């Protein structure tokens, strides 16, 4: 069961999305402020953080910046997808520059479509993880003496 941290300060929106994600088989935790997000992520692991930009106390970009700053101790592999009504190219570019794993515009997706989009992101992240693990594994496998390796003297032409 994928774990999602939904960061949304509007109670109506968070309730709708929370119920939709739960019905689709996700475990959902909701945070309504930047301070809450930072505290929750100190103690719990999630497959994905769905982070609104417009929030009280500190905005989503500030939260993203803190989460990506190595000196703050949050896992660098944490997947953070920005989720906002702000849909300007500058907002997307800034989010990516700060380390967002993706960007979803609230206005482009119904709640049901959002579930499908988040599922797509999770599949994509899992494939990236598997590919990285395979590359690491391939780099660790010794090739000396194997056909086609420089040490074997055999070449493929």
Textual characterization of the structure:
The chain is of the alpha/beta class and 157 residues long. The chain has five helices and five strands, in the order E-H-E-H-E-H-E-H-E-H. It has helices at 11-23, 34-43, 60-68, 89-97, 111-140, and strands at 3-7, 27-31, 48-51, 80-84, 102-105.
Sum up the structure in keywords.
5 helices; alpha/beta; 157 residues; 5 strands; five-stranded parallel β-sheet; disordered C terminus; 15% strand; globular
Report the structural category.
alpha/beta
| Inertia-based shape | globular
Largest sheet: 5 strands, parallel
Strand order of the largest sheet: 2-1-3-4-5
What fraction of residues sit in β-strands? 5-15%
H and E string:
EHEHEHEHEH
Short note summarizing the structure:
This protein has 157 residues and is of the alpha/beta class. It has five helices and five strands. The chain has helices at 11-23, 34-43, 60-68, 89-97, 111-140, and strands spanning 3-7, 27-31, 48-51, 80-84, 102-105.
